[in-house]
TrEMBL record:
<protein>
    <submittedName>
        <fullName>L,D-transpeptidase family protein</fullName>
    </submittedName>
</protein>
<dbReference type="GO" id="GO:0071555">
    <property type="term" value="P:cell wall organization"/>
</dbReference>
<dbReference type="GO" id="GO:0018104">
    <property type="term" value="P:peptidoglycan-protein cross-linking"/>
</dbReference>
<comment type="pathway">
    <text>Cell wall biogenesis; peptidoglycan biosynthesis.</text>
</comment>
<dbReference type="InterPro" id="IPR038063">
    <property type="entry name" value="Transpep_catalytic_dom"/>
</dbReference>
<dbReference type="InterPro" id="IPR005490">
    <property type="entry name" value="LD_TPept_cat_dom"/>
</dbReference>
<dbReference type="Pfam" id="PF03734">
    <property type="entry name" value="YkuD"/>
</dbReference>
<keyword id="KW-0573">Peptidoglycan synthesis</keyword>
<feature type="active site" description="Proton donor/acceptor">
    <location>
        <position position="211"/>
    </location>
</feature>
<keyword id="KW-0328">Glycosyltransferase</keyword>
<keyword id="KW-0133">Cell shape</keyword>
<dbReference type="InterPro" id="IPR018392">
    <property type="entry name" value="LysM"/>
</dbReference>
<keyword id="KW-0961">Cell wall biogenesis/degradation</keyword>
<keyword id="KW-0732">Signal</keyword>
<dbReference type="GO" id="GO:0016757">
    <property type="term" value="F:glycosyltransferase activity"/>
</dbReference>
<keyword id="KW-0808">Transferase</keyword>
<dbReference type="InterPro" id="IPR050979">
    <property type="entry name" value="LD-transpeptidase"/>
</dbReference>
Length: 336
């Protein structure tokens, strides 16, 4: 018999989703679920020969799922199977041993997410959640988990562009890399031993790439020399879609807020520092609701009287990385 779903998860599960959702197991594709008729409107034209407008995409996409563990499962195996990263599946399932979960344990698959609060164009990489978003014409096409730079070689924040693309890339270790590991050759050719994987997108920042990996269990972790790593299938899809010149933004948004169905949702991730501590199994410094209050106030607008501050505090304290509704329904708020 399954355990009772906890209250915080029950609240998140009622989300009604209109749209489904470098040397740094294959993940499944995550695309927006656009109905066939809506897609015809997007790509085609109306009876007067004019392109039809796109349907508006709300701020929350995807849906939470659950899976029971089987014998010999690890959370990392489940993450790879479901196109999730290490940190996001661990954060969504506190108290579950990531390496030896008991068989029959219900695992939350955090496939619902609030879109970052930045212009929806090109590639957006949100470092705290360790996830990449790709937009075309303001509309989400893909979102994928990523591996990022480790402590001494952190991935930089800021804006750049894709300056070139390469299939079956060679890896040429930097002087610093060869100094720290003298066994590295000057060039590692394409193949199974190449840490760049099968495809690479070169950025305007020297020595930084978005690329594949030959170590799938590093996705969602701090393991690269500053580059952004993707699962093999994910980088192949991104490579085939992204043109040279695409803008790239690397951002720091541990707290994301967005609207869905007239309600405001908060998705709280571990900060970059907290994520580091979670990987190293250190004690986390607790977050403070005061850190997110100005963001809530700025997004709530006329719905401020409906904010459930207890729900906000719980989401910020637990940082499970799943969307939590933080507005009380208008009818209930009017009676309180």
């Amino acid at each position: 018999m399954r355990n009772k779903v906890p209250g915080w998860l029950s609240l998140s599960l009622v989300i009604v989703v209109a749209m489904a959702v470098g040397a740094c197991s294959t993940g499944g594709e995550r695309t927006v679920d656009v109905t066939e008729a809506a897609q015809r409107n997007i790509d085609g034209a109306n009876g007067f020969g004019k392109p039809m407008p796109r349907p508006k995409q709300e701020d929350v996409v995807g849906a939470l799922e659950q899976q029971l563990t089987k014998k010999d499962d690890t959370l990392l195996d489940i993450a790879v199977d479901h196109d999730l990263g290490y940190l996001e599946i661990v954060a969504a399932n506190p108290g579950i041993d990531p390496w030896v979960p008991s068989p029959g344990t219900e695992v939350v698959l955090p496939k619902a997410r609030v879109l970052p609060s930045v212009p929806r164009q090109g590639i957006v990489i949100n470092m705290p959640e360790r996830r990449l978003y790709y937009y075309e014409r303001g509309y989400l096409v893909y979102d994928f988990p990523v591996g990022i730079g480790r402590d001494d070689l952190e991935t930089p924040f800021g804006r750049t562009t894709v300056v070139r693309k390469k299939e079956a890339p060679d890896w040429r270790p930097t002087v610093q890399a060869r100094r720290s590991d003298p066994t590295l050759p000057a060039v590692v050719p394409a193949g199974p031993d190449n840490p760049l994987g099968s495809h690479a997108l070169y950025l305007g920042w020297a020595n930084y790439l978005i690329h594949g990996t030959n170590r799938v269990y590093a996705i969602g972790r701090r393991a690269s020399r500053g580059c952004i790593r993707l699962y093999p299938d994910d980088i192949a899809k991104l490579y085939a879609t992204v043109p040279v010149g695409t803008p790239v933004a690397v951002i720091n948004q541990p707290y994301k807020l967005g609207w869905q169905g007239g309600e405001l949702y908060l998705e709280a991730h571990p900060t970059v520092q907290q994520g580091r501590a979670m990987e190293e199994k250190q004690t986390l410094k607790p977050s403070n609701v005061a850190d997110v209050r100005p963001l809530v106030e700025s997004r709530a607008g006329e719905a401020m009287s409906r904010i459930d501050w207890a729900a906000v505090e719980t989401a910020v304290r637990e940082h499970r990385g799943v969307p939590v509704q933080i507005t009380r329904p208008a009818a209930l708020a009017a009676r309180s």
